[in-house]
Specification:
The chain is α+β, with helices and mostly antiparallel strands and about 325 residues long. It has helices at about 100-110, 120-140, 170-190, 200-210, 220-225, 230-235, and strands at about 40, 50-60, 75-85, 90-95, 160, 195-200, 240-245, 255-260, 265-270, 275, 280, 285-295, 300, 305-310.
């Protein structure tokens, strides 16, 4: 029998975001927003921190020949600099009215199997848009707050891939493009960084995965992961991942390849306050809100030369 909710107290079970923990189906599917698989994430701090100080240092001086009385020993020193990385509060919430709660309760009464509550669905939606918001900041940054992300930092060395056009490229040409990107990092950092990660457009990732080396069962993707400059120097397989964000990220809207050493010494995405719901509160006798908040920083690439972009894929 259908129950008619008369006030917010009775309908509270349809509002409380804790119901989000209950597993349910979602009508629309969305792509993954897993930024933590691409960049190191720093969650130090809390929801109310305003930023973090970042200190960097270097050495100055060099050894040299000296006289026997040692009056000319050269000095060596260290230099320090300080930078500030700001955090920004962001949020996403939802509103429910007594009328829509009652209407949705009728749907559940008539179709009880597999139907999530209205509050749960709206909480689901808020979590989804919050995840996308953070993902976008890590990958592309924010023009509003004037910072960039993993795929569009202007300080990162950028060039065209030697061959490009992976839709028709041979395995040898693909390998040459990959090695050109990896070699950039190795050479530009004077071998102080080893590019252990490569991110390529999803369409090119699938092309390499679906193509096989002639007369072998080995995919071109497996070949690239095991036969490259990084693997030759470290004996470790290269971590190759796809990203839809790179399909048109290169110059003139071409595909972009990103090679880098994934290491918190080189880059960090600051996320001190993970998305969470606040207690629900009434906004009228028939309406109430549930707000979610988060504290989001930015991707700091401390050493731009540990990253390289190659365009034209």
């Amino acid at each position: 029998m259908f129950r008619d909710f008369r006030d917010a107290q009775q309908a509270a079970s349809f509002v409380n975001p804790s119901l989000y923990r209950t597993h349910s189906f979602i009508e629309q599917r969305y792509p993954s927003f897993d930024f933590a698989g691409l960049v190191p994430v720093n969650t130090d701090g809390d929801m109310w921190d305003v930023g973090t100080l970042v200190y960097s240092g270097d050495i100055a001086g060099a050894a040299d020949y000296i006289g026997r009385k040692a009056f000319d020993i050269p000095n060596v020193s260290v230099n320090f600099s300080q930078g500030l990385s700001n955090f920004h509060l962001a949020g996403a919430g939802y509103e429910l009215s007594l009328g829509e709660v009652n209407r949705f309760a009728r749907i559940i009464t008539q179709n009880p199997s597999g139907t999530a509550s209205l509050g749960q669905r709206k909480a689901n939606a808020a979590n989804m848009v919050a995840a996308k918001f953070v993902y976008d900041r890590a990958i592309r940054g924010s023009t509003e707050k004037n910072f960039t992300g993993l795929v569009n930092d202007a300080r990162v060395p950028t060039a065209s891939a030697p061959n490009g056009s992976w839709a028709t490229a041979t395995p040898a040409q693909m390998l040459a493009d990959v090695n050109a990107a990896l070699n950039d990092v190795i050479v530009n950092t004077k071998e102080t960084a080893m590019p252990n990660s490569l991110v390529i457009p999803t369409s090119k990732f699938l092309t390499a995965n679906n193509a096989q080396l002639p007369n072998t069962p080995t995919s071109v993707l497996t070949f690239l992961a095991q036969n490259n400059s990084y693997t030759a120097m470290t004996k470790q397989p290269l971590d190759i991942r796809p990203s839809r964000e790179l399909e048109t990220a290169g110059s003139s809207g071409t595909g972009r390849m990103v090679a880098y050493e994934k290491n918190p010494d080189n880059m960090e995405f600051f996320y001190p306050g993970m998305f969470e719901f606040m207690p629900e509160f009434p906004t009228s006798s028939m309406t109430w809100r549930v707000d979610g908040v988060m504290n989001v920083g930015q991707l700091e690439i401390y050493r731009p030369k540990t990253v390289t972009y190659r365009d034209g894929l």
